[in-house]
Amino acid sequence: MTDHYQYRYQNKTSWCKAYCICCAVLFLFGNLYFLWTPPFSSSSYVTTTTTTATTVATTDEEEFHSVVNKKVTKKLKDSVASNSATDEPDESDRKNGNDAMSAEETHADSLAHNPAFSLENSTHQYHLQGPYKKIYRSSHPCMPQNIHISQKNNVHVIPTPENESHFHNQTTESALCMTVSFMLDYQKCAPHQVKPKLLYRQGFHPEQLGYFDDPKPLQFNFTSSSISDTTTALFFQSPWIYHMTIPNVKAGGHRYWYRIEVHDIKGSAQQMKRSRSRSRSRRLHGSPIRNTTTTTTTTTTTTAVEISTNNSLLVGTTPSYSFLTAPLPRTPTSIALVGDLGQTTNSTKTMARIFHDSLESDNNKHPTTLLIIAGDMAYADSDPLRWLSWFEKMEAMTESLTMHVAAGNHEIECDTATLEIFKPYEHYFRNPNRIAEADVQPITEEYKQSLWEQSCSTPSEFKGHYNYGNAFYSFQHGYGHFIVLSSYSDTTVGSPQYEWLQYELEFEFDRTVTPWLVVTFHSPLYTTFLGHNNETQALQMKESMEPLFVQYGVNLVVCGHDHGYMRTHSLTTNGTIDPSGRSPVYLTLGAAGNREMHSKDFIHKEQEPWVAVRNLKDYGYANLRITNASHAILNWVRDEVSKQGPDDKNVWIVNKHYQS
Predict the structure, then answer these.
(1) In this structure, are residues 377 and 87 in contact, taking their beta carbons and an 8 Å threshold?
(2) CATH architecture of residue range(s) 333-654
(3) Which of 365, 341, 368 shows the shortest CA–CA distance to 354?
(4) How many other CB atoms sit within 10 Å of the CB of residue 4?
(5) Where in the chain is the domain with CATH 3.60.21.10?
(6) Residue range 136-176, pLDDT digits in tens
(7) Given its phi and psi angles, is residue 541 left (phi above 0), alpha (psi -120 to 50 degrees) or beta?
(8) What is the pTM of this model?
């Protein structure tokens, strides 16, 4: 080799060595950087448009101050032609098509970054759409999905000299547990392969809290008939369903942040591409918690620990979400009330308005802190995939807004193989203060054949054996004591539900702590709408439970089932108007936008004397703002800009049972 070529060879070799050394140094510093990045300091929110997907990493403080704009940009864009839509679109959607999508999204961006952004003043229609799932799924095979949060118990006020007589005092100490529910893919993320971990902390406090209670996941099998061929059975195996507890959070409207991580504990979860998953997950979300410490809590069934995850592969993680804890007793409360929601484009308009009203902003000093759905959530009708698509649409809201639900007829969903009922409803939700595990018995084949249209899916009139679990329960939230009942369980005198209700009203309800009493169930006792009038379950409940409502001073009864809006005057038994105002006011809120649209018509063309307002033209939800112990304000929040039916806004409801 000549000197010339030997020099070139040696020079080239030197450059290669230098290049390798530089790469090694960059790799080392890069890994050290991501290794020491705190898990909550690199939360990622994703803003999506029709052509791009951008990941924006921010600090928690930046994230908090921009969360309204970020989330409104991401989730309130027009999605008339959304690829995830599962219900039949309405006529306006067919006319609009996809052509205006880009312009609508551009307009949504400009509105979202405007502090005076208001859906009421906008000339465009907004919808709630699913968040980041499709973007992250490739790099996170065990992405937690369908997240929703709920209260687990009542606010426990710890007596102190400062709060013995003043619940609203800022020094009040309180304890509250929350439930975070989510799902994991049943094939890739089996419990023997992966373990979820819930990380949480209050506000911007620098200390990290790792929480892990080794939950036992739920799963169910479901068999249904083919829509086109009723002789063909369709089999469904649900995702792994987790209900994890955040223990002992501080009640009173405090903001908590949480994130769900999923770790491969076997090191072999479906032989996933380790290097790609590890590098992408760390770059998006930082490294796991490193130091292991154990702490005790006052909750006997859970243990709070900080978990070491150095030796496990992160195969799924969410961005950092936040929620506001329940208000203290005897403090103002804003609640969203809705029924028969479904998942049409009209439904997503209603979702968007509820979500918008739950965001803190300069124009919204009293954000909604609770969503109550009076039955008929997903309109799955024994199609299990429709439950998943509904949760995906709702997740943008329910990851941060507490949601509690009641059983409607569309939740009955009989398994055609076992004749079991309420299986998806009982597995997917964890309502607060569960009395006992669900007591559910299958229906008989003879009863199935006697049902409406011989359907075991959504019979309009139904009575089955279903007690406890998610069937009926109660909880406290600010000024309110809320009771949720099941129209499709036994309500006769002496039944488990009746006995529990009577005990709850007699011994658990204390008007000095929670002055307002609100009852929710699906099938209304009074209706002005044609279609569900004089149904068995409503007549039976009216005979047995209405006297209890009047006797114990229920302020408001919230129902769905009829697809319209109705508010009555104060009614005593048998629909007699109570001039004293001490009897319940009845609300029907079934006009949230489901695919069955509005009820057929009114029973009578002329409005009944006991009806205050009725509407069969618009979709929307009711916002109840309990301002103090004696007064609450009700607003019927309609979706459409051009509203057709009668309005019902700024209605003051007076608590005649409150003694100052």
Answers:
(1) no
(2) 4-Layer Sandwich (3.60)
(3) 368
(4) 8
(5) 333-654
(6) 555 677 889 999 999 998 887 655 444 444 444 444 457 78
(7) alpha
(8) 0.77
